[in-house]
């Protein structure tokens, strides 16, 4: 069993800090670096990429809707050409910084509302895939199992990697429970760790209705902006290692 452990990092902006990026980089194997559209600024992106390179952590471009005011968690209707261009812009910016720091972007993970939208919206999924194809078709896209991204990416010859969320609630259909609903984000350390182990070992998770959902994934995410994010991530890492799971980046 080989699993990647990823977290959203570099989500500060200006004088505002969010999460403990350095501590999380000592835990995870992949870092989804904010590209400046939902969070992140040039200095934050540079520091995060440099720290990831120092620790041998894979860097991913966490592209988003252009929505600083709502942290990229507000769904937006963006024309496909515009969305493609905005994703391309973000990807090129973070990859340029990463390369200057001695690394590179090795995958793409959409953020927030864009992530959820392109799981079900084939048109917007295709726009994101087109941006990746324009920039570097060797970059895989991280997404949910069953996402519309898989078909769009296959049509362009882009690879996809499935992920699961240790600290998020699931619907019976295998989607993430919207954040506006109670219980959408999980904070109990032992419960989150146990869910991650079950995801890795059994490829399953308990949905909000008590049923079982299949979530076969190569990567497991722990959000970096939640309270006690570092403690949660460490518990997930420890639980996976104790279960005999090998932690290794997918890219």
UniProtKB/TrEMBL annotation:
<protein>
    <recommendedName>
        <fullName>5-oxoprolinase subunit A</fullName>
        <ecNumber>3.5.2.9</ecNumber>
    </recommendedName>
</protein>
<dbReference type="InterPro" id="IPR011330">
    <property type="entry name" value="Glyco_hydro/deAcase_b/a-brl"/>
</dbReference>
<keyword id="KW-0067">ATP-binding</keyword>
<keyword id="KW-0547">Nucleotide-binding</keyword>
<dbReference type="InterPro" id="IPR005501">
    <property type="entry name" value="LamB/YcsF/PxpA-like"/>
</dbReference>
<dbReference type="Pfam" id="PF03746">
    <property type="entry name" value="LamB_YcsF"/>
</dbReference>
<comment type="function">
    <text>Catalyzes the cleavage of 5-oxoproline to form L-glutamate coupled to the hydrolysis of ATP to ADP and inorganic phosphate.</text>
</comment>
<keyword id="KW-0378">Hydrolase</keyword>
<comment type="subunit">
    <text>Forms a complex composed of PxpA, PxpB and PxpC.</text>
</comment>
<comment type="similarity">
    <text>Belongs to the LamB/PxpA family.</text>
</comment>
């Amino acid at each position: 069993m080989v699993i990647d452990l990823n977290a959203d990092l570099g989500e500060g902006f200006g004088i505002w800090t969010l999460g403990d990026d350095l501590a999380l980089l000592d835990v995870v194997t992949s870092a989804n670096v904010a590209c400046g559209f939902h969070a992140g600024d040039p200095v934050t992106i540079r520091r995060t990429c440099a720290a990831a390179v120092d620790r041998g952590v894979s860097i991913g471009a966490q592209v988003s809707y252009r929505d600083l005011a709502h942290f990229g968690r507000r769904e937006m209707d963006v024309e496909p050409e515009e969305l493609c261009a905005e994703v391309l812009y973000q990807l090129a910016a973070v990859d340029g910084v990463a390369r200057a720091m001695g690394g590179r972007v090795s995958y793409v993970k959409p953020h927030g509302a864009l992530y959820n939208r392109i799981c079900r919206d084939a048109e917007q999924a295709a726009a994101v895939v087109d941006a990746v194809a324009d920039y570097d078709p060797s970059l895989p896209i991280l997404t949910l199992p069953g996402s519309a991204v898989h078909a769009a990416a296959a049509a362009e010859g882009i690879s996809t990697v499935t992920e699961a969320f240790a600290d998020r609630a699931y619907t019976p259909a295998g989607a993430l429970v919207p954040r506006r609903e109670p219980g959408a984000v999980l904070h109990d350390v032992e419960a989150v760790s146990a869910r991650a182990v079950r995801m890795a070992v059994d490829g399953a998770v308990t949905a909000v209705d008590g049923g079982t959902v299949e979530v076969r994934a190569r990567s497991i995410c722990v959000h970096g902006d939640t309270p006690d994010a570092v403690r949660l991530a460490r518990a997930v890492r420890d639980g996976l290692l104790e279960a005999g799971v090998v932690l290794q980046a997918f890219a």
